[in-house]
Design goal:
single chain, alpha+beta, 2 domains, disordered N terminus, disordered C terminus, protein serine/threonine phosphatase activity, protein-serine/threonine phosphatase, hydrolase
Length: 415
């Protein structure tokens, strides 16, 4: 399978090729004097079932840490085309590690999550539950690994392209955003919702699990802990509400869901993702998957406007990284790590002109609050992707040597 994980996978030419499943060589250039990584070519993944293609580029940049000059880039990313050998199934994910072993945590999740999805023959039968289960299983495996995730972990924002649909799963405060045309405007629509204590539902959930929710100033006694004057996420980014154990000044997470973080797990930080599905239409232009280093000081609409200003997603990635870096230094003496994936839809008009439908399923531990009608429609639609895939296989079989026929997905029960 084609897979890129935030590092060079080999030396390739600069041309774009839709039949390539692997990334081209990672190149380096400067943004505001900082060395960054980006792909030298625009990559392409066709979606034959609906006769359109994805063109994408990615950039990852280590943050500026004057007090920790040797700190690693804790972000990682994964892009895998033709998941399960299915030409209509493509995965995009960004993982933002944190804590002393954040790099190891994000790399572990980067590798295991997509592998678990790829090895699951039931994925398209019950995508909401199987996608969620993959996150939970990855979390358990990280706990059982040699990585000490007591005070380290990672967020995870992922998009699975399934034919003409996007399946989005998220834990943490990184973000996926889709752009769609409305008249002469390009409008940003969040595909995920940041899971932080700013959200009343998440605040109440972690409080019930025993978390204290206070800003650093409140914990340190500089502000009244009984007054919740946090404002909103945009205005109070410098001292947000965080989660603390009772009678202790740890772990201090500013998010309410993640993978890893076994200490924070005891006070309500869970690995169960929120999963949603979007039906693509010809009005959709592109989507973005990015770490919170991008969105800390830039709104989703501002990022979409920047992408829309550049015909080449490589230039858009560089511009967003540069602007994010600039905004960080206007507010603080450091920056966060920054990772951006931009995916353009090409010839999406071929996919049909159905009205956009977004079916959201918020999946907390032990919850089952799904719409039966929406889920049933979605399951039938996902099953049609398998039929399309099997038709594609028969076409390949009739026109190519058997040696290069894409293997059929396993039908045996998952162990």
């Amino acid at each position: 399978m084609g897979c890129a994980h935030g590092k060079c996978c080999g030396h390739r030419s600069e041309s774009s090729a839709c039949d390539s499943e692997e990334f081209q060589e990672v190149g380096q250039f400067s943004v505001h004097g900082k060395r960054v990584l980006t792909e030298r070519s625009i990559e392409c993944a066709p979606v034959p079932s609906h006769k359109f293609r994805l063109e994408y580029s990615v950039l990852t940049q280590r943050g500026y840490y004057p007090d920790s000059p040797d700190k690693e880039n804790q972000d990682s990313f994964s892009i895998r085309t033709q998941v399960q050998g299915n030409p209509n199934l493509h995965f995009f994910g960004v993982f933002d590690g944190h804590g002393q072993l954040g790099t190891q945590c994000s790399n572990f999740v980067r590798d295991r999550l997509v592998d678990i999805l790829a090895d699951n023959p039931r994925l398209l039968d019950d995508p909401f539950n199987e996608y969620s289960s993959a996150f939970v299983r990855t979390n358990h495996e990280l706990h059982d690994s040699e990585i000490d995730d007591t005070m380290s972990g990672t967020t995870a924002i992922t998009v699975l392209v399934v034919g003409d649909k996007l399946l989005v799963a998220n834990v943490g405060d990184s973000r996926a955003v889709i752009a769609h045309k409305v008249g002469n405007r390009i409008i940003a629509e969040d595909l995920s919702s940041d899971q932080t204590p700013f959200r009343r539902d998440e605040y109440e959930r972690v409080k019930l699990c025993g978390a204290r929710v206070l800003s650093v100033d409140q914990v340190e006694g500089l502000k009244d802990p009984d007054i919740q004057a946090w404002g909103d996420e945009e205005s109070e980014g410098s001292d947000p509400p965080r989660l603390w154990v009772q009678n202790g000044m740890y772990p201090g997470t500013a998010f309410t869901r993640s993978i890893g973080d076994s200490t924070a797990e005891r006070i309500g930080v869970i690995a169960d993702p929120e999963v949603s599905m979007v039906q693509l239409t010809p009005d959709h232009v592109f989507f973005i998957v990015a770490s919170d280093g991008v969105f800390e000081f830039l709104s989703s609409q501002a990022v979409v406007n920047m992408v829309a200003s550049y015909p080449d997603p490589r230039d858009a990635c560089a511009a967003i990284a540069g602007e994010s870096y600039k905004r960080w230094l206007e507010h603080e003496n450091r920056t966060d790590d920054i990772t951006i994936i931009i995916v353009h839809f090409k010839d999406l008009g071929n996919a049909g002109a159905n009205a956009a439908r977004t079916a959201s399923l918020r999946m907390g531990r032990g919850s089952s609050n799904s719409s039966f009608t929406t889920a049933s429609e979605m399951y039938r639609s996902m099953r049609s992707e398998i039929s399309d895939f099997e038709t594609y296989q028969r076409t390949v079989s009739n026109n190519r040597s058997p040696a290069i026929v894409v293997p059929s997905p396993s039908r045996s029960p998952q162990s």
